[in-house]
Specification:
With about 130 residues, the protein is mostly helical. The protein has two domains: about 70 residues, no CATH class; about 60 residues, no CATH class. Helices cover about 70% and strands about 5% of the residues. It is built from eight helices and two strands. It has a two-stranded antiparallel sheet. A hairpin with a 2-residue loop joins β1 and β2. α1 crosses α3 and α5 packs across α6. It is rod-shaped and about 75 Å long. Bound molecules: zinc ion. The site of zinc ion (ZN) has 8 residues, from α6.
Length: about 130
């Protein structure tokens, strides 16, 4: 346990049982208090995890975005055309081909084998965007 946690725990106990408990826990400890203490410990620990998850945010383009949200957004961004899609129709293609329905029609349809080879896919996309920029 780190010092912060101990300090918070001591504060929680103090609020409940008074300073004496901190000064000498054993002097008035009972089975019931022990159980309450363990419950409290669990609560504090769980709250700690919750707030950690909540606060775990990533600085993305200058905005703080909750990590969970970001992952969800990333899942909805087509890796082939980098378009963000809310369309549930795209989920099917995203799950199966790692791209949106538009990219499926454009790049994958009839060439599923090339697409399924990640090296060829990357080379193909690189060439595609290379040509597009020139
Ligand atoms: Zn796409």
């Amino acid at each position: 346990m780190d010092l912060n946690k101990i300090a918070r725990l001591e504060k929680a106990i103090a609020q409940k049982y008074g300073q004496i408990a901190i000064a000498n826990p054993r002097s008035f400890w009972t089975q019931q208090k022990e159980e309450e203490y363990l419950e409290e410990l669990k609560d504090i620990y769980q709250n700690d995890i919750k707030s950690k998850e909540y606060n775990e945010k990533i600085n993305k383009d200058g905005f703080l975005v909750a990590k969970k949200l970001l992952n969800r957004e990333r899942d909805r961004t087509c890796p082939a055309c980098f378009t963000y899609s809310f369309n549930p129709k795209d989920d099917f293609y995203m799950n199966k081909y790692d791209c949106c329905s538009k990219c499926y029609i454009k790049f994958v349809e009839g060439r599923e084998e090339r697409w399924s080879n990640l090296t060829e896919r990357v080379e193909f996309l690189a060439a595609y965007y290379d040509q597009g920029e020139k």
